[in-house]
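Anyone opening a protein record will find just a pair of labelled lines. A complete record is shown below as an example.
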Amino acid sequence: MSAQWMNQPLFGVAVSVIAYSVSLLVHERVRWLHPLFVGAGSLILLLSLADIPYEYYEKGGELLTFFLGPATVALGVPLYKHRERIRFQLLAVLSGISVGAIAAIVSTGLLVWGLGGSREAILSAMPKSVSSPIALELSRLTGGNPELSATLTVVTGLVGSMLGGAWLKLLGISGELPLGIATGTAAHGIGTAKLLRQSESLGSYSGFAMAVNGILTGIMYIPLVWWLNR
């Protein structure tokens, strides 16, 4: 299919909105299945089966990507409303996020290296636990593959949002603050969005962790890459 109307930004936006709307209906019946998982899978199937060039979809997809920034900033509203509890345990919260950020970078790099991944693959995978805009820039600045980074970031968020809560409870970790901080550190915006639908306070803690993890990863990532390049 190569109809001219598909080569317009509206096409990418329209099919994304339709796919996500359908995925929300599926989520109502299968609660553990994240809407983004179903929505993204539907889009992949559509483009593949209908033989629609990805470049056609990307023109509208770039518009949606642009709004990731403003959407992330909007998380500051619930965070401000629940700031007192975070402030009360700030040292413990920051320590937990810092350990999580270091563990995510180091463990991912070692895993890809151990599996025989190239330098580009390692640099693309290491920032997978921060939000997509940050991961893309870190990958681009250090010689990674931004497209691969985006894919791994989304997969990380999806897995963390669908399985993270159950895993934490299995380990005996409960309470809104630790659950929110752990999810935001490991599953960034996708995990945070899911928690926001459950509870505003959960979402605010997760949003705080996501923001701090993004800052810490950006600070640690560049020196680490410099060390790898020596």
